[in-house]
C-alpha cells in the first residue's frame, strides 16, 4: 500500500496536516488549494482573494457531512496573479489526475477525471477555462491512474461509455470488459489542441501508489500538484 496519504477520509486530521506539511516543505510552497471532489465537470477559478482567505491548512476542509468548506468541483484554473508558492492539488486513488500548464501565458489548471467526470466533460471544461484566462499553447500531464488492463467494468457500462468516447473501450489482462480512461483523456485533450504527456503508472499494480480498486475502503490518496515557482 502506498505511503504519504493525502486523503481526508481515512487518516486523522493531524496525520493529514503532517503529510501536507511535508509536501509543502519539499516543494517550497506555502499554500495548497484543494477541492471537495464529487465527480462533476465543474471548474473553479482560483483567485488571489480565494488564496488570501484560504488559511494554512484550508485543504483539510471539514470532516462533517455537508460542511466541506472546500470549493465543490473537480477542476481548478489559476493565473500567475495568485503569486508564487501556491499549489493547486488534485487528490486521487485510481481516477486520472491531470495538470495543465501554459507557462508563457501564466495559466495553470488541475483536474480530477474519473469515469463520470471525464464523460461529463471536466477536461474540456478545464481547457476552455484556461483559454478564457489567456492560455494558448497548453501542455497536459496525466498522472498515475488505474489502467485499461485493470479497470474492469460491466459490459453495459463499457458500451455506454464507448458510445460517447470510442477510445475508452479496453480489455483487462484477464479478458473482461474494461475502460481506458487515459486513452479517452488523451483523445479529448488532443482534439482541443493540447500537447499530452502521461506518466504511465497504474495505481492498481504499483504498490508505491494508493489504489481504491486494490485496497478498498482503507485506501489512501495521492495528489498531483501544480504551482508557480
TrEMBL record:
GO MF entries: copper ion binding; hydrolase activity; S-methyl-5-thioadenosine phosphorylase activity
Organism, scientific name: Desertihabitans brevis
Transmembrane intervals: none
Name of the protein in question: Laccase domain-containing protein
Family annotation (InterPro entries): Cu_polyphenol_OxRdtase, Cu_polyphenol_OxRdtase_sf, Cytotoxic_necrot_fac-like_cat
Cell wall biogenesis/degradation in keyword set: no
One Pfam family recorded for the sequence: Cu-oxidase_4
Protein family (similarity comment): Belongs to the purine nucleoside phosphorylase YfiH/LACC1 family.
Alphabetical keyword list: Copper, Hydrolase, Metal-binding, Transferase, Zinc
Function: Purine nucleoside enzyme that catalyzes the phosphorolysis of adenosine and inosine nucleosides, yielding D-ribose 1-phosphate and the respective free bases, adenine and hypoxanthine. Also catalyzes the phosphorolysis of S-methyl-5'-thioadenosine into adenine and S-methyl-5-thio-alpha-D-ribose 1-phosphate. Also has adenosine deaminase activity.
Gene3D superfamilies: CNF1/YfiH-like putative cysteine hydrolases (3.60.140.10)
Higher taxonomy: Bacteria, Bacillati, Actinomycetota, Actinomycetes, Propionibacteriales
Reactions listed under catalytic activity: adenosine + phosphate = alpha-D-ribose 1-phosphate + adenine; inosine + phosphate = alpha-D-ribose 1-phosphate + hypoxanthine; S-methyl-5'-thioadenosine + phosphate = 5-(methylsulfanyl)-alpha-D-ribose 1-phosphate + adenine; adenosine + H2O + H(+) = inosine + NH4(+)
Amino acid at each position: 500500500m502506498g505511503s504519504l496519504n493525502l486523503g481526508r477520509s481515512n487518516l486523522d486530521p493531524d496525520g493529514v496536516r503532517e503529510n501536507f506539511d511535508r509536501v509543502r516543505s519539499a516543494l517550497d510552497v506555502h499554500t495548497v488549494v484543494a477541492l471537495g471532489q464529487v465527480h462533476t465537470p465543474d471548474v473553479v477559478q482560483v483567485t488571489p482573494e480565494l488564496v488570501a482567505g484560504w488559511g494554512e491548512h484550508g485543504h483539510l476542509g471539514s470532516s462533517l457531512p455537508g460542511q466541506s468548506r472546500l470549493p465543490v468541483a473537480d477542476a481548478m484554473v489559476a493565473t500567475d496573479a495568485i503569486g508564487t508558492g501556491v499549489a493547486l492539488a488534485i487528490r486521487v486513488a485510481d481516477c486520472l489526475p491531470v495538470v495543465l500548464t501554459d507557462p508563457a501565458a501564466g495559466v495553470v489548471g488541475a483536474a480530477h477525471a474519473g469515469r463520470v467526470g471525464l464523460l461529463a466533460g471536466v477536461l474540456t471544461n478545464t481547457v476552455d477555462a484556461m483559454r478564457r484566462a489567456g492560455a494558448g499553447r497548453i501542455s497536459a500531464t496525466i498522472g498515475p491512474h488505474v489502467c485499461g488492463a485493470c479497470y474492469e467494468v460491466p459490459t453495459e457500462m463499457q458500451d455506454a461509455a464507448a458510445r460517447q468516447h470510442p477510445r475508452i473501450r479496453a480489455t483487462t489482462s484477464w479478458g473482461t470488459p474494461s475502460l481506458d480512461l487515459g486513452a479517452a483523456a488523451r483523445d479529448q485533450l488532443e482534439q482541443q489542441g493540447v500537447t499530452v504527456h502521461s506518466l504511465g503508472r497504474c495505481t492498481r499494480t504499483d504498490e508505491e501508489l494508493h489504489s481504491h480498486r486494490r485496497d478498498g475502503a482503507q485506501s489512501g490518496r495521492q495528489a498531483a500538484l501544480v504551482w508557480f515557482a
